Amino acid sequence: xxxxxxxxxxxxxxxxxxxxxxxxxxxxxxxxxxxxxxxxxxxxxxxxxxxxxxxxxxxxxxxxxxxxxxxxxxxxxxxxxxxxxxxxxxxxxxxxxxxxxxxxxxxxxxxxxxxxxxxxxxxxxxxxxxxxxxxxxxxxxxxxxxxxxxxxxxxxxxxxxxxxxxxxxxxxxxxxxxxxxxxxxxxxxxxxxxxxxxxxxxxxxxxxxxxxxxxxxxxxxxxxxxxxxxxxxxxxxxxxxxxxxxxxxxxxxxxxxxxxxxxx
Length: 264
Hints:
single chain; alpha+beta; Uridine Diphospho-n-acetylenolpyruvylglucosamine Reductase, domain 2; Enolase-like, domain 1
């Protein structure tokens, strides 16, 4: 690990001010990605600005049909939340199956989506539920937030403050996980509201994305059989030692079928 300046701030304004003064600063939330990356000398920020002391960024609230989760709320808190379990059970179940207990008790929802790992779970839920990401500057829709591998619409000094999820009539998250890390080899989050279906896919491609072709088919016929005829572009799939592109394309359809059955 390279030398760096550690700063723990108590407000979003202080965090932004520290970032603007830093030569090459980085925000850190739970540290589940940033710290291992620094330990292996794959990143060398001049300043590490710890958001952990900002109490206003934690917590869960429900307002009508919207569940709002503070950016620094941990996966374990989301998983255990009676409010989340009651409003969007699939979101609580997703959080309960992230990593291991150590990761769930340190990792945060804001940190996860800001990092935008290609195999992270939360991005699929953000996309499928049509969530809104609120920052210190603006509100960003789910369809605009994730822009590429490890890339988002966030600016350098922009801090996620909360994520707001509209309730769905039915929702389910299905994934095939890496047995060691529990990252998604392929994960599909399906949300159904009325006759409208939204699908978020993670793990399959370099960036989490909407399953437009799957949505189109299911909007006309909400059944597992409707998924069978959907063509998944193999050339866009990830390929590595864990799964080939062809296998990932196959898994996208299998996970979608399972999600449909869970919502039926």
